[in-house]
Specification:
The complex is a heterodimer of chains A (about 260) and B (about 300). Chain A has about 260 residues and is of the alpha/beta class. Helix content of chain A is about 20%, strand content about 35%. Chain A has helices at about 25-30, 75-80, 115-130, 150-155, 175-185, 195-210; strands at about 5-15, 20-25, 40, 55, 60, 65-70, 90-95, 110-115, 135-140, 160-165, 170-175, 190-195, 215, 235, 245, 255. In chain A, helix 4 links the parallel strand 9 and strand 10 (about 160-165). In chain A, helix 5 runs parallel beside helix 6. Chain B has 8 helices and 18 strands. In chain B, the strands form 5 sheets. In chain B, strands 3-18-17-12-11-8-7-4 form an 8-stranded parallel sheet. In chain B, strands 5-6-16-13 form a 4-stranded antiparallel sheet, with no helix packed on it. Chain B has a two-stranded antiparallel sheet with strand order 1-2. In chain B, helix 4 (about 170-180) packs across helix 5 (about 220-235). Chain B is globular. Classes of the chains: A alpha/beta (about 260), B alpha/beta (about 300). Bound molecules: flavin-adenine dinucleotide (FAD), flavin mononucleotide and FE2/S2 (inorganic) cluster. Chain A: Pathway: Pyrimidine metabolism; UMP biosynthesis via de novo pathway; orotate from (S)-dihydroorotate (NAD(+) route): step 1/1.
Chain lengths: ~260, ~300
């Protein structure tokens, strides 16, 4: 169950310029969290910025009771958060519906673009724990070699990683979706993806044509984070036919690839 | 110490409730708040039929506030009465259902359906939505239609009726007097203030709906002023809201004349805000030697 905690910051790093990674101590939260879920973090003490900011859970260490988040500085809230090197963080979580893993999903491809790699690392931790690192392909995209995230730690977990950069400074030169279309030739059983909207839209289109199931993590602006305010509407196709809005904070942020209306 | 209040026939064990639309149907906040500590729970605006709501983005943050344009997304009165109320009723906390519609008949239909449903202690009429039949003019900005809605609802329900006033009018006191005359049992204020935010990089409005309603600490002085003026003019009990984050903010409304207060946007920032406000009001009363909350209501007018 989700909890509201004042969590002590136990680590801070800047893996690439403009991206921060914060570790905090929250044993209950670490125990309850699953990959793809997020925390809702207060970014300041006053009323500006006012609302909490949703940030995916990047990694957990259940033994140590710690949780990591990784985020890009894009505005006031994330700028404040990036300055917090010690002290307490006001955190709610774990929130939302995350990725589903298990037997039938083992022969899978995990695709991340930019900061979208953040929640995928937690997923990879789980997949490694389930003992299927060797069956899983990981594709990571970034603007250039200097902005690649989670590559080394993912390799350390035992996964094979393929890289794509927009400028060709590392791996394949071009969008990461070009690597995905190669991987789709090998008939993978399942795809997990997180990244910018254009990438996710392209991924969902490719999965539909290939007839491969998958899950994507989407973002919407949030206020409450608990399903009460209806701010975070995501348009989805209903199984029964027709379209409807669902709440990204409780029905998502992970949705089945075929559900999302882009 | 007595903190119980009577809001136009709705008996609350303390003056703190939740602002409609910010607390869902209450159960969403159960992991964080002991709902039984609340004086009442006001739930999301309910219409005759389910509504899908507006296209996203539906919110945007503003300095010390936020704009929302949810578009009255709700499951419709049938599901509220049949599925949600039975679960809420078990809590034993008075539930006030906020009702909305496009026509006078819509309001009456929802009110009639909720009459006698266990757990429903009162209705709050949201007259700040556009009147489709009258060309999108808000019920809340035309005293004649506001009076019509109030009368229509009163005539089909035995429940206490709170009329929620919009601040987007030139004569708030006139509106309050008109709906009081029409039979309202209490008044609530304020609903959100209309606003627009433009994304300068993309050179277009941020919200899918273009306009949205401003709430949060930014609106508090406007809301306290509304309570202050209406308290002087109308004798009905007032439910005050708008930017209440702490017990001291709530006390401002009570001192200005509010019998009870509703906490809205604050829930998003601090999910325990409601309960902390209940406790903070008790502490204030103890420290300042007040034994009954009613001694504080409107006290600033007598200073
Ligand atoms: C479920 C979820 C998980 C997320 N996980 C991560 C993560 O792991 N790492 C990370 O870096 N970011 C993540 N985000 C995005 C993050 O929440 C926003 O970048 C952050 O709220 C921006 O706050 P700010 O005050 O810095 O920027 P603001 O000043 O509020 O806005 C700056 C820019 O960010 C955009 N923005 C604002 N809020 C959101 C939002 N909720 N979603 C998307 N864009 C937004 C605005 O359109 C604006 O262009 C996640 C979002 C969601 C919904
Ligand atoms: C996300 C959101 C949804 C709301 N939905 C409703 C609603 O359905 N009916 C209504 O009468 N008021 C609605 N309101 C207005 C609030 O009930 C309240 O009047 C207003 O937000 C001012 O209080 P606050 O500043 O404490 O939030 C909504 C407000 C917000 C922020
Ligand atoms: S953010 Fe409030 S319902 Fe999702």
């Amino acid at each position: 169950m989700s909890q509201l905690v004042q969590a002590e910051i136990t680590g801070h790093a800047e893996p690439v310029p403009g991206v921060s990674r914060i570790e905090f101590y929250a044993p209950g939260l670490a125990r309850a969290a699953g990959p793809g879920q997020f925390v809702h973090v207060r970014c300041g003490e006053g009323s500006d910025p006012l609302l909490r900011r949703p940030i995916s859970i990047h990694a957990v260490d259940r033994q140590a009771g710690t949780v990591k988040i990784m985020f890009q500085v894009v505005g006031k809230g994330t700028a404040w958060l990036a300055r917090q090197k010690k002290g307490l963080l006001d955190v709610m979580g774990p929130l939302g519906r995350g990725f589903t893993t298990g037997q039938t999903r083992r022969n899978c491809v995990v695709v991340g673009g930019g900061i979208g790699a953040a929640p995928l690392y937690f997923l990879l931790q789980e997949l490694a724990r389930e003992g299927c690192a060797r069956q899983v392909k990981v594709l990571l995209g970034a603007r250039n070699a200097g902005r690649l995230l989670i590559k080394e730690e993912t390799e350390r977990l035992g996964f094979a990683v393929r890289v794509a950069t927009d400028d060709g400074s590392a791996g394949h030169g071009g969008p990461v979706t070009e690597l995905l279309s190669e991987e789709l030739q090998a008939n993978p059983g399942f795809i997990y993806a997180c990244g910018p909207v254009p990438m996710l839209r392209a991924v969902c289109g490719m999965l539909e044509s290939a007839g491969v199931p998958g899950e994507v993590s989407v973002e919407e602006r949030m206020a409450c984070g608990v399903g009460a305010c209806l701010a975070c509407a995501c348009r989805v196709r209903e199984a029964a036919g027709g379209e409807n809005y669902r709440r990204t904070c409780v029905d998502g942020p992970v949705f089945a690839a075929e559900e999302v209306v882009w | 110490m007595n903190t119980s209040v009577n809001l136009g026939g709705i008996k609350m064990k303390n003056p703190v409730t939740t602002a409609s639309g910010t607390f869902g149907f209450g159960l969403e906040y159960q992991p964080y708040v002991d709902l039984q500590r609340l004086g009442a729970i006001i739930v999301k605006g309910t219409t005759p039929k389910p509504r899908a709501g507006n296209p996203p983005p539906r919110i945007v943050e503003t300095p010390s506030g936020m704009l929302n344009a949810i578009g009255l997304q709700n499951p419709g009165v049938e599901r509220v009465a049949g599925e949600i109320m039975p679960r809420l009723a078990e809590l034993g906390v008075p539930v006030i259902v906020n009702i909305a519609g496009d026509t006078v008949e819509d309001y009456a239909l929802v009110a009639r359906r909720l009459d006698g449903v266990p757990g429903v202690a009162g209705l709050e009429i949201n007259i700040s939505c556009p009147n489709v039949k009258k060309g999108g003019i808000q019920f809340g900005s035309d005293p004649r239609t506001a009076v019509e809605v109030t009368r229509a609802v009163k005539s089909v329900t035995g429940l206490p009726v709170i009329v929620k006033l919009s601040p987007n009018v030139t004569d708030l006191v006139g509106m309050a007097e008109a709906v009081a005359e029409a039979g309202a049992d209490a008044l609530s204020m304020i609903n959100t203030l209309l606003g627009v935010v433009i994304d300068v990089d993309r050179r277009r409005p941020v919200l899918g709906n273009i306009t949205g309603g401003l709430s949060g600490p930014a609106v508090r002085p406007v809301a306290v002023r509304a309570v202050w003026q209406v308290y002087r003019a109308v004798s009905l009990p007032i439910l005050g809201m708008g930017g209440i984050m702490t017990a001291r903010d709530a006390l401002e409304f009570i001192l200005a004349g509010a019998t009870a207060v509703a906490v809205g946007t604050a829930n998003f920032v601090n999910p325990r805000a409601t309960v902390e406000i209940v406790e903070g009001i008790e502490t204030y009363m103890r420290e300042n030697g007040f034994s009954d909350i009613s001694e504080l209501v409107g006290l600033a007018h007598r200073a």
